[in-house]
Amino acid sequence: MVATHNHRVKPVTLNFSDQLSEGIFLFGFERDFDFRAGQVIGIALQEEGPRRLYSICSGPQDPEIRILYNVIEEGYLTPRLSDLEAGDTIWITEPRGEFTGTHDPAVWIATGTGIAPFYSMLRSGLADQKVLIHGNRYLEQFHFYDEFSSVLGNNYIRCCSAEEDDQVFHGRVTGYLGLEPSLNPRLKYYICGSAEMVVDTRDLLIEKGIPFDHIISEIYF
Ligand SMILES: Cc1cc2nc3c(=O)[nH]c(=O)nc-3n(C[C@H](O)[C@H](O)[C@H](O)COP(=O)(O)OP(=O)(O)OC[C@H]3O[C@@H](n4cnc5c(N)ncnc54)[C@H](O)[C@@H]3O)c2cc1C
Fold this sequence. Notes:
It contains five helices and twelve strands. By secondary structure, it is an alpha/beta fold. Strand 1 and strand 2 form a beta hairpin. Residues 40, 52-55, 68-70, 72, 74-78, 113, 116, 194, 218, 220-221 line the site of flavin-adenine dinucleotide.
């Protein structure tokens, strides 16, 4: 049998756990391991408990590991995570994953908490030559607006499907991309979000002439 370290878990103590907006939470604990921006960790409430994957939503040099998640009402883990407070213990796996950033020019496309790996990449200085297209249902959900826009300026494009604002595209990320007259096929396109959003966006990019090997995706399922 091949040995794997992926399933080793260890306890960590939360430094904080905050609700950022309706159903969206962020918690953090001290970082005592290295990872690459864009990687994920497994999280459980007990050593042997059901485990789910989460993108690390902080930079590899930051003192804390932070996790951004939305509560799935009918889900197992997220309603329970939302009851946690500073001082509580969770169990984590080692970081893993290949959805990692580079300095090459690219377009980052995220919906909801799918912004987390791109925030990690931003924090590690990988936002150069990037365009970020971020979709949310409500305006209050663009939690990292200040940091992204101070680095990306007009290359941070917010798409809001349920509310309107002068500065924000009204519609989904696919609506925004669909209106672009042409997309640069030499760029890499990174997509992160729900399965439905990733598949719809991938299909649209291919339709618009982006080679499939320039499309890199992380599905939150
Ligand atoms: C590589 C990877 C990285 C991930 N990173 C994050 C992250 O950074 N933040 C985050 O919030 N989630 C992330 N997820 C999703 C996360 O692992 C869980 O699936 C999610 O938090 C639901 O867990 P749960 O135990 O509450 O619900 P479960 O009991 O697992 O699921 C209940 C139902 O909800 C569905 N579901 C799962 N996720 C969603 C969703 N986002 N919206 C609607 N329905 C959903 C499931 O398919 C299932 O049918 C990631 C998933 C993967 C595979």
